[in-house]
Amino acid sequence: MKAHRINFTLNGEKVSLEVEPNDVLLDTLRGRLGIKSPKVGCDRGDCGTCTVLMNGRTVRSCLALAVEADGADLVTLEGAGTRKWTKRLQAKFHEKNAFQCGFCAPGVILSATELLEKNPKASQHDIKEAIAGNLCRCTGYEPIVEAIAETAKGK
Ligand code: FES
Ligand code: FES
């Protein structure tokens, strides 16, 4: 198979690299670029631990090909400082101890980022809907929803 050169922005930095047509975005981020916040969970689109933002929208990087990132603006939790809501959410989750093992954290925070960028006045219902695809085995979701709601209210 013929390799493709792709160019994209990752957490505010320009990246250029050659990828195979069937390279998976999650593997490329973790294995070649040292971006470890997107986690390998189910590896089939069910758990949300591999979530990244691509052009402001959440994408399951285990289901995306690296070539799809060509020309895109990618954000992972390592780039929290590049997004207002990501940074605020991260601080609030920390303050409230809203996670336990933290495995789901990067995906949840990026899903919440997408929500608050679109709708800073998100309701509890909106929040629950936005994180419905991010599975958490530890918390029962209540502290997560509360942390997102408090972030939205600027508390
Ligand atoms: S690892 Fe991608 S959705 Fe579970
Ligand atoms: S805090 Fe452990 S999976 Fe969510």
Characterization of this structure:
The model has no long low-confidence stretch (mean pLDDT 97). It contains five helices and five strands, in the order E-E-H-E-E-E-H-H-H-H. The longest helix has 14 residues. Helix 2 packs across helix 5. The protein folds into two domains: 76 residues, Beta-grasp domain (Ubiquitin-like (UB roll)), CATH 3.10.20; 74 residues, [2Fe-2S]-binding domain (DNA polymerase, domain 1). It has 155 residues and is α+β, with helices and mostly antiparallel strands. The site of one FE2/S2 (inorganic) cluster has 10 residues, from loops.
Structure, briefly:
By secondary structure, this protein is an alpha+beta fold. The chain is built from 5 helices and 5 strands; from the N terminus they run E-E-H-E-E-E-H-H-H-H. A hairpin with a 2-residue loop joins strand 1 (4-10) and strand 2 (13-19).
